[in-house]
Give the backbone structure.
Amino acid sequence: MKIPLLVAATAAGVLLVGCAADGTFVPQDPIGRAIFGQPQEIEDNSYYNTYEPRQIVVPSVPPRQRYERRSTRIPTSYRDPVYVEGHYSWTGSNWAWQRGRYVNRPRPGAIWQRPTLFTAGNQRYYRSGYWR
């Protein structure tokens, strides 16, 4: 009786390690991610170092905006931290979620311009975020 209970408790613990606050399952280990997949997110912080927006024709609108709670932990290593809200970005083939995060302002007075989606003529365009 103790062994099945121990196995069930261990399995539940392993599964809970990968649960995110929004209810999605995100395995912590590379093997788990390979088996279960992982939500596509862009993790590249260089995205936030751009000064010229990219403007791209896109075939669809992004999914509905996700709700995120702003982190209260501000990186102490940043000289001038700015919180950039989460948003969807176009990867070239689909929409990927960019988590909200603190980034280091690249220069004094720089303001982050959030990505936008707009229509001109019969084309839909995505303009990436950038610093101005």
The two ends are 65 Å apart (CA to CA). The mean pLDDT is 74. The chain is about 15% helix and 25% strand.
